[in-house]
Amino acid sequence: MVGEYGTRQVGFDVGAHRGYWTLLYQKRVLPGGIIFSWEPAPKNYQILLVNLAKNKLSHVIPLRLAAWRESTLLSLSKASEEEIASFLSKVQVRENGHTLAVSVDSLVESLSLPRLDWIKIDIEGAEVEALKGAMKTLRRYKPTLWIAFHDTLEELKRVLAEADYEIRGEVHHAPTPHYQEVGYLWAVAKDSAP
After folding, report:
1. Is a pLDDT exceeding 70 seen at residue 43?
2. Which CATH architecture fits 7-192?
């Protein structure tokens, strides 16, 4: 997927955490490209803002949003109280949630984006729900996908097949205390694959 990046590209870093992926790949979309970095956790979002400011990145737009199948309020609960907790959270839908979530489709539409070249998703088990909210975007723009999975691989494969995507690679990691099947995959739309 790294080779897929190029100038003037538009990308979504969904689950930006503290900006690692954004910082690593931001130069690859220049000149003229833009990255929208989604991070709902307040502490991580604040650190993301600091990291973007320190690096003087004007072509990255930070969004304090979660990705979901529809617009709603989510409740994010920590899986751990340790510093690593910034990587480990569980998503629960509750009426009294305090985290704003929107679908990829609704954000793309509201921004009137002319293109979306890639989406990176690393959102601790909510990746299937985020993809369900991106189906129109996947069919219209055919972005390259990089998705971390957390006990969701089989369901991800079903949703990707429904969107007419093919998986180009998978990497599996050792189980964690919170997830048995962990890793990432990258996928492309079947009609855009060479």
Report:
1. yes
2. 3-Layer(aba) Sandwich (3.40)
